[in-house]
């Protein structure tokens, strides 16, 4: 059973081993939500870990293993699913039962037999809260000026991709980029023009990668970075040149630059992590050194770390 999906409608996952209970809950909310169902804890965990994730889980407590309490515990223990709100729907109505469920991470408790108006109100409240929380989380991950992912996102993805590359023995490349002579640009054209310059540079850089796994982020100030998983050194160097060319092709006038337009210095580093190695600090240091070498070598060029 599933209601038609709409991009504007939140998704609620109903988990109960009794089909009649699922039907009763689904009937109450089907007009306002896309409804997914699971008749076992294992199926519920699989659905919650998929894409797109549900915005809310209505979870029965008394089910064959894993029961509702264990399902909630696993959801909250998994970083991929821990932010999905859970409401227990159960006939157990003692204070001890409710306290136990809340301590496991549930957001609310609905006891059977339930009042339809209460179910609708609590579902709406928690879905609205989840949507607002998601919006705040998205805002916290974007750079306010360029709308690129920010340094926080880059650092987290770098750790994740480094761990994945270490497990798989695959290469990981990092590209560090710096707008040349940006301080003179700001001083000459003004901070408003400087901000617009960074926005245009950001759009140009974001348009270069054609793989969803590649990440372009604002590193800070006039510095940008690109994380390229599964990318060997030749491919990373080629991408570095594409980034450089994309900014040069903007043709933004810059009276205080050697080229008379805005350019980019690019440093590229590639490493294949070995089992037992530490974090990605050495990759970052190599990319930084390569960027410094590009700037020292005359700017508007790509330097690849050895």
Automatic annotation (TrEMBL):
The Response regulatory domain, residue ranges: 11-127
GGDEF domain span: 170-306
Reaction catalysed by this enzyme: 2 GTP = 3',3'-c-di-GMP + 2 diphosphate
Keywords: Phosphoprotein
EC numbers for this chain: 2.7.7.65
Enzyme class (EC, first level): transferase
Residues recorded as bearing 4-aspartylphosphate in the entry: 60
Signal peptide feature range: none
One Pfam family it belongs to: Response_reg
This protein's name: diguanylate cyclase
Species: Halorhodospira neutriphila
Classification lineage: Bacteria, Pseudomonadati, Pseudomonadota, Gammaproteobacteria, Chromatiales
């Amino acid at each position: 059973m599933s209601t038609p999906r709409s991009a504007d409608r939140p998704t609620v996952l109903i988990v109960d081993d009794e089909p009649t209970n699922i039907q009763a809950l689904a009937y109450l909310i089907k007009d306002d939500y896309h409804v997914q169902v699971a008749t076992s804890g294992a199926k519920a965990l699989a659905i919650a870990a998929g894409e797109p994730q549900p915005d809310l889980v209505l979870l029965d407590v008394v089910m064959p293993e894993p029961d509702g309490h264990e399902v909630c515990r696993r959801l909250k223990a998994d970083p991929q699913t821990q932010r999905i709100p859970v409401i227990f729907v159960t006939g157990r109505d003692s204070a001890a039962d409710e306290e136990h469920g809340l301590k496991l991470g549930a957001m609310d408790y609905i006891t059977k037999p339930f009042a339809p108006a209460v179910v609708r109100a609590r579902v709406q409240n928690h879905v609205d809260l989840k949507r607002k929380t998601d919006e705040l989380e998205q805002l916290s991950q974007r750079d306010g000026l360029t709308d690129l992912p920010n340094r926080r996102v880059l650092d987290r993805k770098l750790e994740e991709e480094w761990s994945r590359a270490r497990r798989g023995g695959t290469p990981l490349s990092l590209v560090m980029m710096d707008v040349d002579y940006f301080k003179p640009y700001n001083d000459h054209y003004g901070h408003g023009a400087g901000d617009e310059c960074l926005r245009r540079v950001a759009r140009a850089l974001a348009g270069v990668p054609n793989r969803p796994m590649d990440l372009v982020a604002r590193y800070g100030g006039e510095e940008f970075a690109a994380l390229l998983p599964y990318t060997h050194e030749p491919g990373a160097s080629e991408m570095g040149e594409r980034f450089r060319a994309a900014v040069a092709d903007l043709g933004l006038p810059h009276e205080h630059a050697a080229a008379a337009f805005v350019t980019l210095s690019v440093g590229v580093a590639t490493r294949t992590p070995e089992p037992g190695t530490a974090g990605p600090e050495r990759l970052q240091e190599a990319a930084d050194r390569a960027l410094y070498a590009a700037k020292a070598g005359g700017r508007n060029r790509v330097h690849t770390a050895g």
